Amino acid sequence: MLWLDIEHTDGKRYFTWDKNKFPKPAAMQDELAALALTLTLALALTLALTLTLTLALALALALALALALTLSLTQDELAATGRKMVTIVDPHIKKDPGYKVYDEGKSKGYFVRTKDGAEYDGWCWPGSSVYLDFTSAEVREWWASRFSYEHYVGSTRLTLTLTLTLTLTLTLTLTLILTLTLTVTLTVAYP
Q1: Tens digits of residue pLDDT in 138-168
Q2: Are 112 and 142 found together in one domain?
Q3: What are phi and psi for residue 131, nearest 5 degrees?
Q4: CA dist 180 to 60, 69, 173, 186, Å?
Q5: Same domain, 53 and 130
Q6: pLDDT tens profile 87-146
Q7: What's the number of domains the chain is made of?
Q8: Are 99 and 134 members of one domain?
Q9: What's the rounded Cα separation, in Å, for the pair 95 and 176?
Q10: Which domain covers residue 19, as residue numbers?
């Protein structure tokens, strides 16, 4: 699990990336996915060797798994490996004309208002901030949509087809390992 606090953002504006610290957030996740692949292969190899398979068979299984994962494992599939990246997002928005999320929320009237009808201006990590009126279903739906890959570019995207491919590949590999282990065990026990 990789946790990113507000400093990952551009000027403490949620759903953005600091271009100096995270110039290529999707590429960063590709690198994390490659690391996940390496760890998965090491685990598969260790499991195969532990289950008394020959080194050649263990390597063949690891290579088959590597090929299957390489074809489908990118930043889009990071979450499918069990590795997740969580970026902090609080329920306030930096009051900053020109910041897309603020401008859109303001134009739609989505922020909490004072008794006089003005935008409530609070103070939090980004400085002057406004707060979403979560009593409105429309606001909650709009806010939830901000988390989609379309609106939060660089966040982790997960596609069902590739997830199913990865899951099926891992399931078939483990089934093969268990079948071969049982075959070897029975051959040794009953020559």
Answers
A1: 999 999 888 887 777 777 655 444 444 444 4
A2: yes
A3: -125, 140
A4: 13, 22, 11, 10
A5: no
A6: 888 888 999 999 999 999 999 999 999 999 999 999 988 899 999 998 999 999 999 888
A7: 2
A8: yes
A9: 57
A10: 1-89+155-191
